[in-house]
Amino acid sequence: MSRRPNAARRFGESGSIPFVGAFHSKSHPSPLLTIGLFVVGALLIVGYLYHGSGGRSGDIGALNRLDGGVSCTQEVQRLIPYLKKAYGDSMRKVLHVGPETCSIVSQLLKEEDTEAWGVEPYELDDADSNCKSLVHKGVVRVADIKFPLPYRPKSFSLVIVSDALDYLSPKYLNKTVPELVRVSSDGLVILSGYPGQQRAKVAELSKFGRPAKLRSSSWWIRFFIQTSLEENEPVIKKFEQATSKKSLSSACQVFHIKPLH
Ligand SMILES: *[C@@H]1O[C@H](CO)[C@@H](O)[C@H](O)[C@H]1NC(C)=O
To answer: Where are the transmembrane segments (predicted)?
Structure first.
């Protein structure tokens, strides 16, 4: 399905062999020189791939470190008061989509005048009793977000997605992000990691199926333009005002997308 696992190896082969070959035919370098050139070439390719993870292409394999690290779902918990300031009444009926959604839904349900639902995109293996009860009541659903969401258009005032999109390829993002916008009446909030951040424990890999792909903000902005989604400028201003008063810097990128008309 994905070309990711072999990307680095294929780059190495196709990139270096013709180069070394051309060199050979003109002069006769020592084997040491050839090896040296090969090593330099390999380092350049690794450097290129590493940069690529934050750069232009969504296809080039990211060399993410697999170890502890940032969770944007935890970041949502921290940002809820500021999202309330920015969205006001639009926080009345919230859908959260992402790993560990039970924690967000539980927190939102404690807020006054807020109804909350959750979509857990991966299996819930270690759900506590509170989470099991939310699933039992149908408040939290386990659903693969690569497929259409089981909700009518504008079912929620606000949709918040954290972490989950970082595990999808552009092909699925093309469908999933507009789906998230479809089910919201007032907007979509996307929380996504910064390129180079530590993310996804090794144990989580089997759950997510692939390592997180942390994309740069310029990548996301181009993606929004390509998929005809617009950022919500008035909300961005309010959110920035609210967070800057507390000089709160987010560990995750936060995007505010307008609803469909
Ligand atoms: C996603 O959609 C955009 C705009 O429709 C298109 O240009 C792009 O090729 C699509 N990407 C993939 C991977 O399907």
So the answer is: 32-50
| Alpha carbon of 58 to ligand 1 centroid (Å) | 11
CATH of the domain at 87: 3.40.50.150
Instruction: Give residue 22's domain range.
Output: 4-52
Measure the CA–CA gap between 129 and 219, rounded to whole angstroms.
39
Pair 105, 210 in one domain: yes
Secondary structure (DSSP) of 185-200: SS-EEEEEPPTT--B-
Burial of residue 40 (CB within 10 Å: 0-12, 13-18, 19+) is exposed
* pLDDT tens track for 99-108: 999 999 999 9
Ligand 1 site, residue 170, Cβ cutoff 6 A: yes
- Region of 199 on the Ramachandran plot (φ > 0 left; ψ -120 to 50 alpha; else beta): beta
The residue contributing the CA closest to ligand 1 atom 13 is 171
* Cβ 174 under 6 angstroms from ligand 1: yes
* Centroid of chain to Cα 115: 25
> Which of 174, 220, 227, when mutated, tests ligand 1's pocket best, judged by the most ligand atoms within 8 Å of its CB?
174
pLDDT in tens, 230-253: 999 999 999 999 998 777 777 899
Which structure tokens are listed for 180?
């998230």
Task: Note the pTM of the prediction, 2 decimals.
Answer: 0.73
